[in-house]
Each structure stands twice: as structure tokens, then as C-alpha cells.
């Protein structure tokens, strides 16, 4: 993505954020504001870069940090699910295996 493409995407994000702020059900949409902030970050990054530089997310430290955090969170969720599956369902207040007692009927 070159500087012109980033600028165009940033302008689209800015326009969408303005439009969404006018609609009650979309006014609190954090995704649009996050997209706008990311567009602004990229616009500033490329504005300070030498002419002709192309944006590459594979070399963007911010993107790589976010991807690493997402991968770690996914691994943690997977470990939690596996841990819960290994231990089976839990019953509150019960320790150890459940014991079944047979009672004799009184006659």
C-alpha cells in the first residue's frame, strides 16, 4: 500500500466515522473509531517516510505486536478449554469423586 492508497483509505475511514456518528445505532461503534485511528497512524507513518516507500504490515512493529498478542490470547483460550475438558464438569461444593450409597429399604 503506497502513501496515496493509505491517504484514500484514511479519508474513507474519516467519512464513515462522521456518517456513523450521526446514526444513533452506530454512534458508539468502536470499530469505526479504531479504523480511523489506524488510518491516521499509517498516514503519519508514510508522511514521515521517504518518497516511494510502500507500507508492508509484515514489517510494521505495531501490527506484529498486535498479532502476537492475539495469538497468545488464542493460545490461552485454547489451553483453558482443554483444561476444562480434561477435568470434566465440576459440581460446586463437592470434593473428590461422587459416592453412591445404596440404602436398604426398611420393611
List the helices and strands in order: HHH
Q: How far is it from the N-terminal to the C-terminal residue, by CA?
A: 87 Å
What is the total number of structural domains?
Answer: 2
The radius of gyration computed from the alpha-carbon positions, rounded to a whole number of angstroms, is: 27 Å
**Uncertain spans, ≥5 residues at pLDDT below 50?**
none
Mean pLDDT score, rounded?
76
Shape: flat
Main β-sheet description: none
Helix percent band: 55-70%
* β-strand number: 0
Helical segment count: 3
Strand content: under 5%
Structural descriptors:
mainly alpha; 3 helices
Describe the secondary-structure layout:
Blueprint: H1 3-22, H2 30-47, H3 61-87
Helix pairs in contact: 1-2
If you had to describe this structure to a student in words, what would you say it looks like?
- By secondary structure, the protein is mainly alpha-helical.
- The chain has two domains: 1-54, no CATH class; 56-86.
- It has three helices and no strands.
- The protein has helices spanning 3-22, 30-47, 61-87.
- Helix 1 runs antiparallel to helix 2.
- The longest helix has 27 residues, at 61-87.
- 6% of the residues are buried.
- The model has no long low-confidence stretch (mean pLDDT 76).
Amino acid at each position: 500500500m503506497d502513501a496515496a492508497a493509505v491517504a484514500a483509505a484514511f479519508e474513507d475511514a474519516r467519512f464513515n466515522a462522521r456518517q456513523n456518528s450521526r446514526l444513533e445505532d452506530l454512534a458508539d461503534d468502536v470499530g469505526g473509531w479504531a479504523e480511523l485511528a489506524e488510518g491516521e497512524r499509517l498516514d503519519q507513518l508514510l508522511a514521515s517516510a521517504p518518497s516511494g516507500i510502500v507500507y508492508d504490515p509484515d514489517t510494521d512493529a505495531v501490527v506484529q505486536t498486535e498479532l502476537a498478542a492475539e495469538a497468545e490470547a488464542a493460545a490461552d483460550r485454547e489451553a483453558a478449554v482443554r483444561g476444562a475438558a480434561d477435568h470434566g464438569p465440576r459440581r460446586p461444593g463437592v470434593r473428590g469423586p461422587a459416592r453412591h450409597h445404596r440404602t436398604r429399604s426398611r420393611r
